[in-house]
Write a structure and sequence with these properties.
Layout: E1 6-8, H1 13-34, H2 36-50, E2 55-59, H3 65-72, E3 76-81, H4 84-93, E4 98-101, H5 104-110, E5 118-122, H6 131-141, E6 146-152, H7 157-161, E7 175-183, E8 186-196, H8 199-208, E9 211-219, E10 233-240
Parallel strand pairs: 2-3, 2-5, 3-4, 5-6
Antiparallel strand pairs: 1-7, 6-10, 7-8, 9-10
Helix pairs in contact: 1-4, 5-6
Length: about 250
């Protein structure tokens, strides 16, 4: 797999959007048929953090599977995703849902009166080229509320995908990684790009956005320990403490 992975310095949001436009139909079909990591690991952890939220922003909602789950609990949920095809699929399968195609930064700029008591980003932060801009937008929209995120674990995802030994890889440096899309050890026929960032980069970015981390957990996948003994996911819950005025 190593020879199929490309490490580069940069990719645009538009380029990453095009990759997801290609992969999302197969990804959505997999979620419908049973993505065990999503169903048994990620969704339950997010569900444990939702609690009494009544108005939820689903950041990077994809084809809307989590959005629908969150709304089923009685909350008003708005899904935002920069991939037009993802939003088209979400609207097709969930015509009563509220979805917006575009980056979170664009949504925040165009909907400055919107307010949410919880923002959720499931496996999104490592796909965002502008992490600081994304978090600033979330902080504005959910000022005084909470933010819950899951992401590929920066320390162990390079081992899981097989590029940790690449000469161009350094854990402490930010690098764009184009690789075959893999979920539950199932490889798709197309590639997507994620950005490797050390854990310290996420911690500092949360603090810069006015977010105080209140919980951080490492989550294993569902595979046997003999197959992969390390946590594949990092889960974070934060209180958005910065006042709305200081973000203006």
């Amino acid at each position: 797999m190593l020879r199929e992975i490309k490490l580069t310095m940069n990719k645009t949001q538009a380029e990453i959007n095009r990759e997801w436009d290609v992969i999302v139909p197969a990804r959505d079909a997999q979620q419908r048929s049973g993505d065990v990591s999503f169903l048994r690991v990620l969704r339950p952890w997010i569900g444990s953090a939702v609690r009494d939220a009544r108005c939820i922003l689903d950041v990077g909602c994809g084809s809307g599977r989590l959005t629908q789950t969150l709304r089923a609990a009685g909350a008003r949920v708005v899904g935002v995703d920069p991939s037009p095809r993802s939003i088209a699929l979400a609207q097709s399968s969930d015509p009563v849902g509220i979805y917006h195609a575009g980056t979170l930064e664009q949504f925040a700029a165009e909907n400055q009166q919107e307010r949410f008591d919880l923002a959720v980003a499931n496996m999104v932060l490592m796909d965002a080229p502008d992490l600081d801009g994304l978090l600033a937008g979330i902080a504005r929209l959910a000022s005084g509320g909470r933010f819950v995120a899951t992401l590929a674990h920066p320390a162990f995802w390079p081992l899981y995908l097989g590029y940790a030994g690449n000469d161009a890889f350094s854990y402490g440096k930010e690098v764009f990684v184009e690789a075959p899309y893999v979920v539950n050890n199932q490889r798709f026929q197309a590639a997507t790009t994620h950005i490797h960032r050390p854990v310290s980069r996420y911690i500092s970015a949360f603090a810069q956005a006015g977010m105080t981390i209140t919980r951080m957990e490492e989550l294993r996948g569902t595979e046997p320990r003999s197959a992969f003994p390390f946590p594949r996911f990092l889960a974070i819950e934060a209180k958005i403490t910065r006042s709305e005025e200081s973000l203006q």
